[in-house]
TrEMBL record:
Gene3D superfamilies: SGNH hydrolase (3.40.50.1110)
Domain named SGNH hydrolase-type esterase: residues: 44-199
Name listed for the protein in its UniProt record: Arylesterase
Pfam families: Lipase_GDSL_2 (PF13472)
Amino acid sequence: MALVFRTLLLDIQSFLFLSLKRILAAAFTLMLMCAPTYAATVLILGDSLSAGYGMPENQGWVQLLRDELPQHTIVNGSVSGETTAGGLRRLPNLLASSQPDLVVVELGGNDGLRGFPPNQLKSNLTKIITLAEDQGAKVLLTEIMVPPNYGPRYSKMFTEVYHQLAGEYAINLAPFFMQEIAADKSLMQRDGIHPNEQAQSKITQWMLPWITEALDK
């Protein structure tokens, strides 16, 4: 009799345990189904490094970013040869048409290559940041460096602009994604300035955590 009772008790315990597991699994599934999906719009405001210079646009790092973040809308507002002044002129229309939650600013390289004064660079970037923030968008600034042949003083002043702005506006600053790529000739186009197709996935993986962090900030 005692053996029968223990067996019955074990069967009841097993039934209750399995039922509880099923209830918890169903509740968890329901939570996932009911959880809102956060879908943001990200505007990339850049130059040839983000416009996919020298290759089909669908092979550039911005397109690869779309593949990594399918829940978000990635708008590529990059133009080859763009300066900070040009980006500033185009930004109002881009903001109006895309209404981004985040603006990734990858500009300044062409300012540096043309030897524009760092104070002009800072003025334009300041206006870009404030314009984006006034429209309710977060801003992620990407650091830009100029080649060393421009002289250490100019190079230092130029790069410091990005760090100053990141501190003044309390925004994230992504390190220059060309640092390691530019040193590897196998990842560069013949002009020695632009990354090739093989470098695009590396740029995407470099920028991905910075963009996701900025979205969650």
